[in-house]
């Protein structure tokens, strides 16, 4: 009986200990939970305060008066600058992209295209034929009279043969070269001309750099700037 009574007392004591431990653990958990709840509540309060501050800032921004639009400045009309006029250099003749030139040996006024890209002047010649006279090379050719349209036969001594490469082909062409007296405006000189069939072109004469150099200035925006001159000593 004593043993049984002692056993019962020990069991009851253990049960009381377990209950006490459980209560202590629960109390500790309740205290930790209360701390977490307090922290969450503090965070919520801080968030609400930040939200109120943002709302107040947004309201302040909306209350700022909008700037009034500035009317555009009235347009100022400036007079157009005067068109630049190219003045010829002293001692040089101003010519346009097209001129009428006088060929002394033929006594003819022929339409000419002024071409600063061409090295040598060129003359429209048909039926070109080489021959020899007194041991020298000559060339016989015909040109079309600009007024009557008739073919006029000419003979001139051959100066040389020039090798010409056109811009639209890679094949070189050998052309006869003669010397002719040419008058453009009041400028008279003797220059070399290559002979070539220019029937497919608009102008019977092409004036190149060998005629223009140091003598004339070209204004490509103009035509017929140099008045036609027929020297009295010209002979057909």
TrEMBL record:
Pfam families referenced in this protein's UniProt entry, alphabetically: Zn_protease (PF05618)
Record-linked InterPro entries: Asp_endopeptidase (IPR008503), Peptidase_aspartic_dom_sf (IPR021109)
Region described as Disordered: 69-88
Gene3D superfamilies given in the database record: Acid Proteases
Feature: compositional bias, Pro residues: 69-82
Residue ranges of every copy of the Retropepsin-like aspartic endopeptidase domain listed in the record: 94-223
Alphabetical list of PANTHER family matching this protein: ATP-DEPENDENT ZINC PROTEASE DOMAIN-CONTAINING PROTEIN-RELATED, ZN_PROTEASE DOMAIN-CONTAINING PROTEIN
Name the UniProt record assigns to this protein: Retropepsin-like aspartic endopeptidase domain-containing protein
Source organism: Parahalioglobus pacificus
């Amino acid at each position: 009986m004593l043993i049984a009574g002692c056993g019962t007392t020990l069991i009851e004591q253990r049960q009381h200990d377990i209950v006490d431990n459980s209560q202590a653990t629960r109390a500790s958990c309740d205290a930790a939970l209360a701390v977490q709840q307090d922290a969450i509540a503090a965070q919520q309060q801080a968030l609400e305060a930040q939200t109120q501050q943002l709302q107040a800032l947004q309201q302040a921004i909306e209350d700022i008066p909008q700037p009034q639009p500035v009317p555009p400045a009235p347009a100022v009309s400036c007079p157009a600058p005067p068109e630049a006029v190219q003045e010829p250099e002293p001692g040089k003749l101003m010519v346009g992209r097209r001129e009428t030139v006088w060929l002394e040996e033929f006594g003819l006024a022929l339409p000419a295209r002024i071409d600063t890209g061409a090295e040598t002047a060129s003359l429209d010649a048909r039926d070109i034929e080489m021959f020899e006279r007194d041991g020298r090379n000559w060339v016989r050719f015909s040109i079309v009279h600009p007024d009557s349209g008739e073919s006029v036969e000419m003979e001139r001594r051959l100066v040389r043969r020039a090798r010409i490469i056109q811009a639209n082909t890679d094949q070189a062409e050998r052309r006869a070269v003669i010397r002719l007296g040419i008058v453009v405006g009041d400028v008279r000189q003797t220059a070399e001309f290559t002979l070539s069939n220019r029937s497919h072109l608009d102008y019977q004469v092409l004036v190149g750099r060998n005629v223009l150099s140091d003598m004339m200035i070209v204004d490509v925006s103009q035509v017929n700037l140099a008045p036609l001159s027929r020297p009295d000593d010209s002979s057909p």
